[in-house]
Write a structure and sequence with these properties.
By secondary structure, the chain is of the alpha+beta class. Helices cover 44% and strands 15% of the residues. A 6-stranded antiparallel β-sheet has the order 2-3-1-9-8-10, covered by helices on one side. Strands 4-5-6-7-11-12 form a 6-stranded antiparallel β-sheet, covered by helices on one side.
C-alpha cells in the first residue's frame, strides 16, 4: 500500500512530483522518491509491506521501464516462479513490484488477467515515451487524473492535483447532486469538471502525442442468464473453501497482519479464519458511550466483539469514540478528498490510528460481504416493498398515514421502529428499480429541486439515468442479484472503498478486503438471488457457510452499522456548528441551496418529526469541503519530506 503521482507537460514536472511526495507522505511514510526525464516526473510514497529492503523502493527501474505502484499482488510468488521457469527472468528484489514489471514486459496489458490483489500502477516506457496505468477490477485502490491542454497529471489523492497549474476548479453539477443524494459521489467523475477517476477494471494509455485512451479489461459475468445447477450444500462448501483461500491470500505480508472486529458476521468470520494463520492475531473494535447508544437505538457491537475475542483468544483492543473527535472534522473532510457524509470514515480513521500506534501496518476488513451476499437492511426492505405493493391502494394509504404520525425521537431517546418505518414508506410504493435507488437516497427528485438552485436540476435526471442503466445492465429477472450488482458498482466503490482507502492511509495503515476478491465475488454472484435471501434470512448462503467457523450467536445476531453515532452528535454536540456553518449567510453565499428548505430539515430533526441527521451532516461536510478545496488559494500541507533522488 502506497501513494503515487505523475506529471507531464508542465513547466515544473519535477517540482510537482516533489510536492506530491509531501502531500501524500501519509500514504508511504517509509520512503518517498521522485524520478524524471524530459517527458515525465514520477513520485512514489512507500508503506513497506512486502520486501522491506531498499530493493523494493520506487520508482522502480528495469530496462526501459519505470514503475510506480500502489497496492498488493497476493499471488506474486506463484507468478514469479512462472517467470523464472518459463521466461528465464532474473530478479533483483523479492517484491511484488518487480513481478508486475516483468509480467507487463512479457504479457503487455494481458498481465492484468493474472493478478490477484488490489492495485493501481503506472508504467512508463522511456524508449517509446508512453504511459500505461491500470486499476484493479473493483476499484479498491484509487486513481485520479486530469488533462489540462497538453499537460497530464495523475495521483492517488485528489488534493495532490487541485493546485497543479491550470487545474479547473469549476464544480461538477452531477457530482454535487450525487453527493447530496447518496452522501457520496457515484461514477467516475469528481467534484471538479475535467478531473476524473480511472474506472475499476480499466487501463489508461497516454502517449507523447498527448493521446489518452481508456479500455476495460475485466467485467463481472452476467450469471443471471446461466446460473450453475450446483446444489445448495455444494455452494455452501464452495464458499467455505473460497473464504479460507481468500483470507490466506490476504495474509501475505512481511509484517504482522491484524483485523477489524465489529462483532458482526463478516469481520468475525475474517478474524477467525485469519487466526488460523496468525496465532497472535490482534483485533480492533470501536466502542460508543451509553448516551449516544440510546439515541441511535442500535445493537451493542462491543459486547459481541468481546465475546468472540475471549472465545478465540484474540489480542483485542477497543477504541472508544466520543464527540471530541468532531474538533478534527475539517481534517477528516480534507483527508477524504470528496464530500462524503458517512461517519464510518471517522471509525476507520480512529481504529487505524490506534493500530498504527501499536506498530500495525495491515488490517483485514469484512467489507464487501453485504454487497455480494445481500446483507443490507435496505436490500431486504426493497424485497418487502414488492410484497407491500400488492396490497390494495386504500390499505397502503392508511398504513402510510399511520407511519407519518410516528416519532423518530423524543428527547434523548431514539425510536428505530419509527425511523425505519418512515424510511420504508419513502420508497415502498415505487417501481422496483426506483424503489431501490430511493432506499439509499436521502432525497426524492422533488426534494432535490426544493433544495437546489435550478442550474443543478438537469443533474438530477443524470444521476437517475446512471442508476437505471447500471441496475438494468445485468441479472435481469433476478431482483436480488440486480440489487447486489448495483451495490458492487455504486455503493461499494463510491462509498465504502473510497472512505476506507483515504481514512486508513491518513493513518499510514493498509486495509485489505478478502470479500472483495475476483474468486469470491464470481462465486457469490453465481448464486441465484432466491438462495441468497430465503426463509426471511439475508446472506443465507454465507451464514450457512460461516456455521463451520463461528457460533450461531454471532452469525444470527441483529445487524448493526459501522457508523458513528451521528444522530446523537447532530442533535447535541454538533448543534452549534450546524447553526454556524449552515446559517442563512453561509448558505446564500454559496448560491447553490435554498436556505429555507435546509432550515426546515434541521427543525424537523430537532423536534423528532423526521430523521434528517445524515442530510444535515452531509451539508456540514459539504460546507467544510468548500472551505478546504474552493475557498483557499493553496491547500496546506506538511513541509518536511525525506530526500528524493535528483532528476537525470
Amino acid at each position: 500500500m502506497c501513494g503515487l503521482a505523475g506529471f507531464t507537460g508542465f513547466s515544473n514536472n519535477w517540482e510537482l512530483a516533489e510536492r506530491a511526495n509531501i502531500i501524500q507522505k501519509h500514504r508511504g511514510p517509509d520512503n518517498q522518491e521522485s524520478w524524471s526525464d524530459d517527458f515525465i516526473a514520477l513520485a512514489h510514497q512507500r508503506l513497506s509491506i512486502i520486501d522491506l529492503s531498499e530493493a523494493g523502493n520506487q520508482p522502480f527501474h528495469k530496462g526501459d521501464l519505470v514503475l510506480v505502484f500502489n497496492g498488493e499482488i497476493y499471488n506474486y510468488q506463484a507468478l514469479r516462479e512462472v517467470l523464472v521457469k518459463e521466461k528465464q527472468c532474473q530478479f533483483n528484489s523479492s517484491s511484488d513490484t518487480e513481478v508486475i514489471l516483468e509480467m507487463f514486459q512479457h504479457y503487455g496489458s494481458e498481465c492484468l488477467d493474472f493478478f490477484e490483489g488490489m492495485f493501481v500502477f503506472a508504467i512508463y516506457n522511456k524508449k517509446k515515451g508512453d504511459l500505461f496505468i491500470a486499476r484493479d477490477p473493483f476499484g479498491i485502490k484509487p486513481l485520479f487524473y486530469t488533462q489540462i491542454g497538453q499537460a497530464f497529471a495523475f495521483s492517488s489523492e485528489l488534493k495532490t492535483l487541485v493546485d497543479v497549474p491550470g487545474f479547473n476548479k469549476t464544480i461538477n453539477p452531477k457530482a454535487l447532486v450525487s453527493c447530496l443524494n447518496y452522501i457520496w459521489i457515484s461514477g467516475n467523475e469528481t467534484m471538479f469538471e475535467g478531473c476524473f477517476k480511472l474506472p475499476p477494471g480499466h487501463f489508461l494509455t497516454y502517449s507523447k502525442d498527448q493521446e489518452l485512451s481508456i479500455k476495460k479489461y475485466w467485467d463481472l459475468e452476467d450469471f443471471g442468464q446461466s446460473y450453475s445447477k450446483i446444489e445448495e450444500k455444494e455452494k455452501i462448501r464452495e464458499i467455505e473453501k473460497e473464504m479460507e483461500s481468500s483470507v490466506r491470500r490476504h495474509m501475505v505480508a512481511d509484517v504482522p497482519v491484524s483485523s477489524f472486529l465489529s462483532g458482526g458476521l463478516d469481520s468475525s468470520l475474517i478474524s477467525v479464519l485469519a487466526k488460523k494463520i496468525n496465532e497472535k492475531l490482534s483485533t480492533y473494535t470501536i466502542g460508543t458511550n451509553t448516551k449516544d447508544k440510546k439515541v441511535e437505538s442500535m445493537p451493542d457491537d462491543e459486547r459481541y466483539a468481546l465475546k468472540l475475542a475471549q472465545k478465540y483468544k484474540f489480542d483485542h483492543h477497543v477504541i472508544k469514540i466520543s464527540p471530541s473527535i468532531l474538533k478534527d472534522l475539517p481534517f477528516i473532510v480534507r483527508t477524504l478528498d470528496e464530500p462524503i457524509g458517512d461517519p464510518a470514515a471517522i471509525n476507520t480513521y480512529l481504529i487505524c490510528k490506534a493500530a498504527r500506534k501499536k506498530g500495525v501496518k495491515v488490517l483485514l476488513s469484512g467489507m464487501g460481504a453485504d454487497e455480494i451476499f445481500f446483507g443490507y437492511r435496505r436490500q431486504k426492505a426493497s424485497v418487502y416493498a414488492l410484497i407491500f405493493n400488492r396490497l390494495p391502494y386504500p390499505i397502503k394509504s392508511l398504513i402510510n398515514y399511520v407511519v407519518q404520525l410516528m416519532p423518530v425521537k423524543i428527547g434523548a431517546k431514539g425510536f428505530k421502529l419509527g425511523r425505519w418505518a418512515k424510511r420504508f414508506m419513502d420508497f415502498a410504493m415505487l417501481p422496483p428499480e426506483e424503489a431501490y435507488m430511493r432506499s439509499y437516497s436521502y432525497y426524492d427528485p422533488d426534494q432535490l429541486k426544493m433544495l437546489l438552485d435550478k442550474d443543478y436540476w438537469p443533474a438530477i435526471d443524470q444521476i437517475r439515468a446512471e442508476h437505471k442503466d447500471i441496475f438494468n445492465s445485468k441479472f435481469k429477472g433476478d431482483y436480488v442479484n440486480q440489487i447486489c450488482h448495483t451495490d458492487i458498482n455504486m455503493f461499494m466503490v463510491g462509498l465504502n472503498l473510497t472512505y476506507t482507502d483515504r481514512a486508513s492511509m491518513a493513518a499510514s495503515v493498509e486495509v485489505r478486503v478478502p470479500f472483495i476478491d475476483k474468486k469470491i465475488i464470481n462465486t457469490a454472484m453465481s448464486i441465484p438471488g432466491k438462495q441468497k435471501y430465503q426463509k426471511r434470512e439475508s446472506k443465507y448462503i454465507l451464514k450457512k457457510a460461516a456455521e463451520k467457523f463461528l457460533p450461531k450467536e454471532i452469525i444470527y445476531r441483529p445487524k448493526a452499522s459501522f457508523g458513528a453515532p451521528i444522530r446523537s452528535w447532530v442533535s447535541k454536540d454538533l448543534r452549534a456548528l450546524v447553526d454556524d456553518l449552515l446559517s442563512e449567510k453561509n448558505i446564500k453565499k454559496r448560491g447553490i441551496f435554498n436556505y429555507n428548505y435546509i432550515r426546515n430539515l434541521i427543525e424537523k430533526d430537532r423536534k423528532g418529526l423526521e430523521d434528517n441527521a445524515y442530510q444535515i451532516y452531509q451539508l456540514l461536510t459539504l460546507e467544510l469541503w468548500f472551505r478546504a478545496f474552493i475557498d483557499t488559494e493553496n491547500i496546506p500541507f506538511e513541509t518536511s519530506a525525506q530526500p528524493s533522488t535528483q532528476p537525470h
